[in-house]
Design goal:
Layout: E1 23-31, E2 38-47, E3 52-56, H1 63-70, E4 78-83, E5 86-87, H2 93-96, E6 100-103, H3 116-126, H4 131-145, H5 160-172, E7 178-182, H6 190-206, E8 209-213, H7 217-223, E9 226-231, E10 234-239, H8 241-246, H9 248-254, H10 260-267, H11 280-290, E11 312-313
Parallel strand pairs: 3-8, 3-9, 6-7, 7-8
Antiparallel strand pairs: 1-2, 1-4, 4-5, 9-10, 10-11
Length: about 325
């Protein structure tokens, strides 16, 4: 498939009060204090409330640096970042934690309490919630992540997959309107990967804005509605998963790999203009339709988007 015509990523503009996005990145740059590493170069991005967005790119492309601007762990050295109408440059990490929850890739960088129970209670308590509210938040997290048998366990005595779930659950219990997940499926087994998939779907139902940094393309293909692609400290594409993963030139330029189902579909069912499949069920359904039958996983247009839309690219 040929590369789409190169177009510029739209510039951010000041929205009206009724259109304040969940995240507005306006020409943001970040240069590390040594001055010899430009981690972000004039990035512009707008994410609406309730959007589930995948952020992809090779290591060193700027993904993690960008997301650390959202919660104030890093401050832009140029441009600005606004979350829920609040410019992050002027706020502390503690204050921004009310708006942005951040789950680290490595749970060992996040967990510190003596028990899982205390870990889940810490965030809500730090927000100033009442004991009853804390108990309700913790109970909800325990039920969803199936942690009832581990409440008295030290987090570092858990397996890595469970430890990572505790890290996610501790932020989930805070119920932030924006949630950043950094490689949530890395190191997970089949069961815990399923929990993460279900979590993303639940967050979508709750209207939470989610930014999922991941190399797990099948996960993103299955649950996100938009994929932002980074390369060399810049955003170079922003479109639906179907459009991004169908762009073979884009995948090649960024050294990324579309889901296997998409790769198969591009060489089979999509060759004559059919909808590019994202999942094995969609491939099976497309094959069945060609044979005169039907299937449970029929490829359908993306949520409110054109499945064959051209990614907005630059660079």
């Amino acid at each position: 498939m040929s590369s789409p015509a190169t177009t510029s990523v739209p510039e951010a503009t000041d929205p009206s009060p009724d259109e304040v996005p969940a995240i507005l990145v306006d020409g943001a740059s970040y240069v590390y204090p040594t001055g010899d590493v430009v981690a972000l170069r004039e990035v512009t991005l707008r994410i609406g409330h309730g959007e589930i967005v995948g952020l992809v790119g090779q290591n060193g492309s700027g993904k993690t640096t960008l997301t650390k601007l959202f919660n104030g762990l890093l401050k832009p050295t140029g441009g600005r970042v606004v979350v829920n109408g609040i410019e992050t440059r002027n706020e502390s990490v503690q204050e921004l934690a009310r708006h942005v929850g951040y789950v680290f890739q490595n749970p060992n960088h996040q967990l510190f309490a003596r028990t899982v129970q205390e870990e889940l209670e810490f965030g809500p308590r730090n927000l100033g919630l009442t004991d009853d509210e804390i108990a309700e938040r913790v109970a909800d997290a325990v039920e969803f992540f199936d942690l009832s048998g581990e409440l008295g366990t030290h987090p570092y005595r858990l397996s890595f997959p469970l430890r990572k779930l505790v890290g996610i659950a501790s932020i989930y219990a805070m119920r932030p309107p924006v949630l950043v997940l950094d490689e949530p499926s890395t190191g997970q087994d089949h069961r815990t990967t399923g929990v993460i998939n279900t979590l993303l779907r639940r967050l979508a139902e709750l209207g939470t804005t989610v930014v999922c940094v991941s190399h797990d393309m099948p996960l993103l293909a299955d649950v996100v509605e938009r994929v932002v692609v980074m390369r060399d400290a810049q955003v170079i594409a922003d479109a639906s998963p179907r459009a991004v993963f169908a762009d073979e030139d884009l995948m090649k330029r960024t050294n990324l790999h579309a889901p296997q189902a998409t790769q198969i579909g591009l060489r089979t069912v999509a060759r004559d203009g059919g909808v590019v499949p994202l999942t094995p069920d969609e491939v099976a359904s497309a094959v069945a339709e060609r044979r005169g039958g039907g299937g449970p996983g029929r490829a359908t247009p993306d949520r409110g988007r054109n499945p064959t839309a051209t990614p907005s690219t630059s660079g």
